[in-house]
């Protein structure tokens, strides 16, 4: 079942696009027919196919898979009928079946036959393995580039949200931060943080900005919570609490600075994790040295440390 605040988020985005009240009502009612638990109507941007006609099935499978892994579509959620979902995604049923077959191969959906049958989401119980694989696919240069891009989008979104967010939107941001604070499992934390970041972008009243924030979130957002311990979770909650408070206080410049600083910290952490992957891979390729070699290196290192200490 779609979350209650989706209708509010959708109306907010629709108003930013200049749609009339009647159009908003018609589109919101149409969306109620899609029994996919998206966290915000802006998530539809993830599922909307692009103009390029080639590779449509692969693209749909990739975008649905990203939404499932991010928790934007809930575990055990039933997709609507093939005809209805194909219409929602603006593809043929043949293309949709191909996309669903790819998702089944990845273990992200399962299909049941019979009177209560259908296609159901099977979200990874522990996405750490998939996230680790995703991190290894990105070079340090990729991570820096993504960090620069995310900083520009997140900073602008926070800046505009501080100028444009409506009172009910700010109340919703505070609720999302509280939800993140109370989240206990890694999946709950990833999902809560995803919703918060999307809601900040939507509060900027710019559909294009929201779409880009969603795209970046699908590309790298979940990695930010990879191997995050309790202390780091508490630090993240404090940073997001301060950001939302700054948006509430209508301080655009500080909101931009805090958002950019947050992305910078997250990028540095991802770079550190990626360098660990390099170190592990490099260690695996090395020929084991003898214990005497290890002792010799340790002795040399100890001598250098003593020499530096004496000289200082």
Task: Give the topology, please.
Blueprint: H1 5-17, H2 21-31, H3 44-47, H4 56-70, H5 82-89, H6 93-105, E1 109-112, E2 118-121, H7 128-137, H8 140-164, H9 167-182, H10 186-203, H11 207-220, H12 230-248, H13 252-285, H14 291-311
Antiparallel strand pairs: 1-2
Helix pairs in contact: 1-2, 4-6, 5-6, 8-10, 8-11, 8-12, 8-13, 9-10, 9-12, 10-11, 12-13
Summarize the structure in words:
The protein has 312 residues and is mostly helical. Helices cover 71% and strands 3% of the residues. The chain has 14 helices and two strands; from the N terminus they run H-H-H-H-H-H-E-E-H-H-H-H-H-H-H-H. It has helices spanning 5-17, 21-31, 44-47, 56-70, 82-89, 93-105, 128-137, 140-164, 167-182, 186-203, 207-220, 230-248, 252-285, 291-311, and strands at residues 109-112, 118-121. Strands 1-2 form a two-stranded antiparallel ribbon. A hairpin with a 5-residue loop joins strand 1 (109-112) and strand 2. Helix 8 (140-164) runs antiparallel to helix 11, helix 8 (140-164) runs antiparallel to helix 13 and helix 9 (167-182) runs antiparallel to helix 10. The protein is globular and about 55 Å long. Mean pLDDT is 75; it is low at 1-53 and 287-299.
